[in-house]
Structures are given as structure tokens and as C-alpha cells.
């Protein structure tokens, strides 16, 4: 590698999270809470709070982490995560889930987001979920591109729906079918 040219980010391995990944996931997420409107939270969750979120998602849906692979510096370090939670509480919504994915800031376009999200969508389909819904504050070209690449379609944009860091924020909602989607009754 010529000097001055940064080494490419290594690929990642995707595995199921455990609540012990709470601190690492909280560290990935915190900068998005503090510094951006990507997250609509004001205060980053503590490691314990994140562990609780992981446990809750694992109990009903899934929470996956991307880690640096064996043989690389920092092998096993969590560099991103993806998870799903219920889309809404009322019973008729129970086959629909809300998905989300976060990589540590600055991680380049190496397919880590796609690896995490593909694995998550496959898992959700195998669990019998039929629709995945996600939302991102505009503008977020990376999130828009990742969701489009994985078959999500825009269903609309809420205008000025959030206020963060001194500005009103639009949120685009996207959706894609999982498994048989709406073509057969749920199991
Ligand atoms: C969104 C995010 C997970 C994407 O992860 P990533 O590892 O960079 O994405 P990938 O390398 O897997 O790329 C997936 C697709 O999106 C495209 N893409 C990724 N970043 C892009 C960008 N900034 N601009 C345009 N396209 C982009 C890639 O070209 C790729 O398309 P292709 O497979 O058709 O070539 C990552 O940027 C991130 O963590 N962002 C901050 C958190 C966030 O916004 N999360 C979404 C909230 S729901």
C-alpha cells in the first residue's frame, strides 16, 4: 500500500448480538445522537440501557452485530449493528417490524451495512415476519441507497416531523416485503 493511501476497511463478520454487546453498540450509536439528526434521541443510551434494548429485540425479533474478522487488527471488535423491533403495538401489526442499522462513523462503503441488513432481513423472514419498515431523517443518501439496494421502496415523507439541533427534520419511510409478504395469510 503506497504511503498516504489509507488501508481499506476490512470486511466484517455478522453474528447474533448478546446483551454483553451493550457497551460496544452504545459506543457505535452515541455519535449519531450527539452530533447528527440521524437519531432523534437527545441523550445516548447508557451501556446498560443498550443491553436492555438488545435483550428486548432478541426476545421478539433480532439484533445482529458486525465484528472485525479473525486475523485482522482488533479482531472481534463491534463496528456496527442492525436490529428489528415491533412496528406498532396493536395485534394486527404483529407481522410487521421496524428495522434499523448503524455503523461506526467514518466506516467506508465496504458492504458492512449490506451484510448486516441482508442477514437481518433473512432472519426476520425466517421468523415469519412479513413486512419490514424503516425510516430515516432527510437527507441521508447512505441510508436511502442501502434501503433501495435491498428492495425497500419509499412510502412517503413526513414533513418537519422532528426538531433537532435547531431545525425541523423530514423523515422518509420505506418498506419491503419479507418472505411471502402479503400474498399468503400469516402462519
Ligand atoms: C447507512 C449505512 C448503514 C450504510 O452502510 P454501508 O456499509 O456504507 O453501506 P454498503 O457499503 O453496504 O452499501 C450498500 C449500498 O448503498 C450504497 N451507499 C452506501 N453509502 C452510500 C452513500 N453515502 N451514497 C450513495 N450510496 C451509498 C452502496 O453503493 C451500496 O449500493 P450497491 O450495493 O448497489 O453498490 C451507514 O452509512 C451508516 O451507518 N450510516 C449512519 C447510520 C444511519 O444512517 N443508519 C440508517 C438509519 S435507518
UniProtKB/TrEMBL annotation:
In terms of CDD domains, this protein maps to:
NAT_SF
InterPro entries hit by this protein: Acyl_CoA_acyltransferase, GNAT_dom
The source's domain of life comes to Bacteria
- Enumerate the spans annotated as N-acetyltransferase domain: 12-175
Which keywords fit this entry according to its UniProt record?
Acyltransferase, Transferase
Name of the protein in its database record: N-acetyltransferase
